[in-house]
Design a protein that fits this description.
Helix content is 40%, strand content 15%. By secondary structure, it is of the alpha/beta class. Strands 1, 2, 3, 4, 5, 6 and 7 form a seven-stranded mixed beta sheet that branches. A six-stranded mixed beta sheet has the order 9-10-8-11-12-13. The radius of gyration is 27 Å and the shape is elongated. The two termini are 50 Å apart.
């Protein structure tokens, strides 16, 4: 399986950023290109038209057709935009003659009038004689270049021996039984391209291969664009109206989506990317990957992330993505995959308007999704649970409910989840649909919150404390103080142990040779206290 694309700093760090447009009347093509390019950090705009933005003269051949399309689009929008067009072609080996592909560039028209049964009757029964090659060709217009730049991607495989019976994909509409993707089994896979999970399809998709080559070239152009030369214009001073916008910025929709592996976090981001338009979708795990070098290839993803956080600070990923995406107090975004409380605290400080969405599903359901996604290496269920425990050890997932504004229970179909996500995206304050709840966070004051109270005692101590010492400190002063942590019922020492033992990452547990258990607060525990106090103050 191919690695999921991750953001490249050249598209996000410099002050000058490429603005790229895709000209197509096929919305599904655009959504696929947008999903891929946005993953690299490239904003992609859509030429919205009810008719084809250019004529397709198949008789010209592939490159001449695309070059003519570029010239036609330039007449409509001018020569100063960076834009590209794409054309898909197909070669069915048994029906092609020599170098001439069948149906070739006219695959769209051919598919519209050909049923699977009709094609199947023309092909041999032997799988080895049902070969096909699906091709994607892209022509990129760069202002100042006389000719387009071309990119090619193709996938070899076979035509299936039976018509497709899998359902539509509500999130990734290009993975569908309604196109040739539903008839085509790529080489190296037993599944049709259209029925693959998104992650698995990246290694086989012909258009993704062409888009990846396009991204590599855009990376070069972005670098040139930001060279310290006089070949770019200096941004003018903001006008009075722009100053007014800066002083009173609109409050945009911003979401941090947290949850365990395979709960649906990335899918949430892709739905937002499709439904909300130009809103950055940022995967924290991809930002972590941007720190990796060739020398870091050996450790597992978790080991590398843990090492990075320990060395650079547990909020380093949040700081990095704030810098990469230039997030402000009025930014719109979807961030997925935070694992530490410090990350959430950092993003909350920069973007107070952010809403935290907790996505959950039963472990067996999440494990089945991981198997379906064909992730390599494949884990047993016990290994999957162990990986869960590793992620929980970083702190946030164990206490995520204390900070979440919305909870989604994602245990139904993909279409049901899409409706849940849309309800949250469009009306986050009142997302009325099954499986979505606003009944989160501590329903009582911090004065009676047991974990908060125990951590407060530890935070004020200069040394580790036993459970009895923590309980005595809480219970003795509860009768004499109105301090924030001293109004709850007494907590027996064994319950103190249960509370802190469950708070993995928030308190360090140490057993002495005598069997005496002591606890000390961690930086994550202090971050937890600060965030809890912030939320409590908002409620008041």
């Amino acid at each position: 399986m191919a690695d999921r694309p991750f953001p490249k700093s050249i598209f996000l760090d410099p002050p000058k950023r490429l603005l790229v447009r895709f000209y197509t009347s096929n919305l599904e093509k655009f959504l696929q290109a947008k999903t891929v390019l946005e993953s690299y950090g490239i904003g992609l705009q859509y030429f919205k038209t009810s008719v084809a933005p250019y004529a397709e003269h198949y008789e010209l051949g592939k490159e001449k057709l695309l070059a003519a399309a570029i010239d036609e689009v330039k007449k409509t929008v001018g020569r100063t935009s960076i834009f590209f067009v794409e054309d898909t072609s197909l070669r069915i080996e048994h029906l092609s003659r020599g170098a001439e592909d069948y149906p070739g560039l006219s695959v769209k028209e051919w598919f519209a009038k050909t049923t699977f049964r009709e094609l199947d009757q023309k092909l041999p029964r032997a799988r080895s004689k049902r070969g096909a090659v699906v091709k994607s060709d892209i022509a990129l217009h760069i202002p100042g270049l006389a000719s387009p730049v071309f990119f090619h991607g193709e996938t070899t495989g076979v035509i299936a021996e039976s018509p497709p019976k899998f359902p539509e994909n509500a999130i990734y509409p290009w993975l569908t039984p309604r196109s040739f993707n539903g008839w085509f089994i790529p080489e190296g896979s037993e599944k049709r391209l259209g029925e693959m999970p998104y992650d698995a399809s990246l290694a086989y998709d012909f258009r993704v291969k062409a888009l990846t080559k396009l991204v590599e070239r855009l990376e070069e152009y972005a670098s040139v664009l930001n060279l310290p030369q006089e070949s770019y214009r200096i941004v003018s001073e903001p006008s009075a109206s722009q100053f007014q916008q800066l002083l009173f910025p609109p409050i945009a929709k911003a979401f941090v989506v947290v949850g365990p592996a395979c709960a649906g976090k990335t899918t949430f981001g892709h739905i937002a990317l499709r439904e909300l338009g130009d809103i950055p979708f940022i995967e924290a795990s991809n930002v972590v990957r941007s720190f990796r070098t060739a020398a870091d290839a050996a450790p597992s993803s978790f080991e590398f992330a843990e090492r990075l956080l320990r060395k650079e600070g547990y909020d380093v990923v949040a700081k990095r993505l704030i810098e990469m995406y230039r997030l402000t107090s009025s930014s719109a975004f979807v961030i997925t995959g935070f694992r530490t409380i410090e990350e959430l605290e950092t993003i909350r400080a920069r973007c107070p308007h952010v809403r935290v969405v907790l996505v959950e599903a039963a472990p067996r359901i999440r494990y089945a999704r991981q198997i379906e996604r064909e992730r390599i290496p494949r884990q047993t269920f016990s290994e999957f649970l162990q990986a869960d425990a590793e992620q929980w050890s970083l702190g946030l997932l164990r206490v995520a409910e204390d900070f979440a504004d919305v909870r989604i229970i994602n245990e139904g179909t993909l279409d049901q989840y899409r409706r849940q996500v849309l309800a949250v995206l469009l009306k986050p304050e009142k997302p009325r649909t099954a499986g979505v709840s606003l009944n989160l966070r501590p329903q009582h004051s911090l004065r009676v919150h047991r974990l908060f109270r125990c951590l407060s005692v530890l935070d004020e101590s200069d040394s580790p404390m036993t459970c009895a010492e923590i309980a005595n400190n809480l219970n003795a002063t509860a009768r004499t103080s109105t301090n924030e942590r001293f109004s709850g019922k007494p907590i027996p020492p064994n319950n103190v142990n249960k509370v802190l033992k469950a708070a993995v990452g928030l308190a360090l547990r140490d057993s002495s040779s005598s069997g005496e258990i002591k606890y000390a607060i961690t930086d994550a525990g202090r971050s937890y206290r600060r965030l809890m106090k912030f939320y409590d103050s908002q409620r008041e």
